[in-house]
Every structure is written in C-alpha cells, then in structure tokens.
Amino acid sequence: MATSDWLAAFEKTAAAIGAWEPSSAATLSALDAVRIDFLGRNGRLTEVLKGLKDLPLEDRKLYGPKAQSARAELEGRIAARKAALESHRDLSLEKSGVDVTLPASPALRGRLHPVTLMMGEMTRVLGLMGYSLAEGPLVETDWHNFEALNIPAHHPARDAHDTFYLKDLPTLLRTHTSPVQVRTMEKTKPPLKIVCPGRAFRRDAVDASHSAVFYQMECLAVGHGITFADLKGTLEVFMRTLLGSSTRIRFRPSFFPFTEPSAEVDVSCLLCGGQGSGGGGKGCSACKQSGWVELLGAGVVNPAVFKLVGLDPEEWTGFAFGIGIERLAMMKYRIPDIRLFYENDLRFLDQFDEDIL
Ligand code: PHE
Does pTM top 0.90 for this prediction? Predict the structure, then answer.
C-alpha cells in the first residue's frame, strides 16, 4: 500500500476519533459499540494499524508510534467514560439478584368491617336528623340494664338463661343498648335526642341468625309533646334514607316494660320487594314468604321510666327504638348467616367497601 493512501486513511480515522465525544455514550452498551467500531477485530483503527506492516520501513518508523498513541489515547478515553458510567450504576442491587423491573406485589389495604360500615351509616342518617352520639359501658349494673327500665325482678329477661352475669354482682354484660337511655336521662336534662350504637350480649345458642355477641343501635328522643306519630315519622324517614325510598314499614303491637305503647317494627323485604315471592317458585326465603322482615322494637317511653330516672312524667314525653345492626346489614347485603361477621374470613370481609354505602 502506498504511504499516501495509508496516511489518508489514518488521518480520516484520527479525525473521527477526535470528533467523538465520550459523554455522547449514555450507556455502557453504547460505549461498547464505539469501542467495537474503532478497536474491534475489524474496527476502523484496527484496520489502519494492520495496514502499517505494508509500509516501507522508514514510514513505519515514522507513523507507527503516532498510530499507536492514537490507539492508546482512544482506549484511555473509553476507559474513563466506562468508569464514569459504572459509578452511577447501583451494583449492589444487581449483585443482590433483585429484579427491580418486576411489578410490585399488591399492597394490602385494610377495610372497615361491614358492621362498622352499617353502624356508621345508621348514626350518620340519625345525625342528619339532629341526634347526637351517646355511649355507655358494656359491663352494666343491674339498675341501668333492668331496674331503671322498669324490668321487674321476675321478668324472664333477667333469667340467667338469657343474661351473662358477672361474679361481682350486681354487674352483667348489657343485654341491650337501652341502659344508655337511662344513663343519658340521669345526667342530661331534656329535651334530648340521642343515638347509641354498640355491643350487646345474650346467652343465645349461636346459629345462622343468633350470636351471643351482637350489635344494636338505640335511639331516644325526649321533649315536650312527643307522640307515637313522631316515632312513626322518624322511623319512616330513617328506613327510607337507609334502605331506599320505596321501603315500607309496619307496626305490630308488642310489649316492652320500658315503652307503652310498644311495637315491633317490620320493614318490607328488600330481597323480594315485599312480594314474598321469588326463589324459583319456592317463595322468598329471607322473609319466609311474608314480604316483611322484623327489624326492631320501639315505643313511647313508659312514664314509669321517667319516674325511675328522676324526670317528671307529667312534663316529659318521648319515644325510643332499638335495632339490630347485623340484622339490618344481613338484609341490606343479603348475608345469609350472622356468623360470617365474626369469622374474620377475608374472602367475606373483602367484599365490603365504604364506596358501596
Ligand atoms: N331494648 C329492646 C331489645 O333489645 C329494643 C327496644 C329498644 C324496644 C327501645 C323498645 C324501645 O329488644
């Protein structure tokens, strides 16, 4: 090869090397591509260096060192760039074998329990109607749970078969939320409107519709001239807001020692729309084909209770109702068995979200 041809090729390559900006290689693989382009087995500079051997001895002596130093310089620049790129790479992560590009495992989000959601919704609706929250202890005295509610000593509700009595008599686990009525009336001068959600306990055998521990919500209004009509209106608005505007309610005469008159209140069955039909011709099982579901006890506050808590029955009147929270949730969400609430099975609990209320 003529020296002039070789020299032209060398200068062209040297110019290309001079024009290369190491910082333009943004990754290690881009840098390696540059290395291969110039210094690989058939790289541009490699070819030029190979051509040296065909030059006359003098020219080889003259240009050989230049070509070698061009190579050394390029190798130096590549090595410096490589070191710079590697210093930005988290090698510890690579060595650990963790693949950060894999999708993350899903974050488990906690939820409110369906009973909590139902309770929150019930108290919210009554809150909008002007009721304030009241609470009482789960371990109650005989006075608050029975005596002051006009439940006499011989009443069957006091039977040990129904109530969990504690060793240090006369305390017991409250059998309903009604003692909160007593506690509130004892310390707050009417007029008052309260709602008290909470746990209650009964010595019931556990089955699909009974639990020894369950939730109730008590509602009490005391004022001047409050009548049964106020109770009816309040319950109608409450139930329709909670369960839908087509919900109907009906009152059946009943008895509670602390209300007079008293009623059991039924709500039109949500599952069959109050028709009692469905279930593939067998009829609606949720309401036993009646179209109605018994949901709560209610009544006008018995004057005897006012006397027991130290209020003048000539001055004050009121109404109260107590409702089972699980029962309502069971109807609203079509839950067939009360035990599902307490088994903490995530497959059940995961289905409830605040968004569904
Ligand atoms: N405390 C009653 C029960 O547990 C329900 C009730 C509350 C009835 C208030 C009337 C008034 O069954």
Answer: no
Core vs surface per residue 127-162: b (16+ CB within 10 A) or e: eeeebeebebeeebbbebbbbbbbbeeeeebbeeee
7-12 long-range Cβ contacts below 8 angstroms, 24+ apart: 7/63, 9/47, 9/48, 9/51, 10/48, 10/63, 10/66, 10/67, 10/70
Say what the pLDDT of residue 189 is: 94
List the residue whose alpha carbon is closest to atom 10 of ligand 1.
298
Closest to 291 in 3D by CA, of 322, 250, 346, 261: 250
Low-confidence residues of the chain: pLDDT under 50: 356-357
Atom of ligand 1 lying closest to residue 177 CA = 1
Pocket-testing residue among 258, 262, 323, ligand 1, by greatest number of atoms within 8 A of Cβ:
258
What pLDDT, in 10s, does the model give residues 233-251?
A: 999 999 999 999 999 999 9
What pLDDT score does 209 carry?
A: 83
Report pLDDT for 109: 77
φ and ψ of 305, to 5 deg: -70, -45
Hey, whose CA ends up nearest to atom 7 of ligand 1? Answer: 322
Which atom of ligand 1 lies nearest, measured to the CA of 175? 4
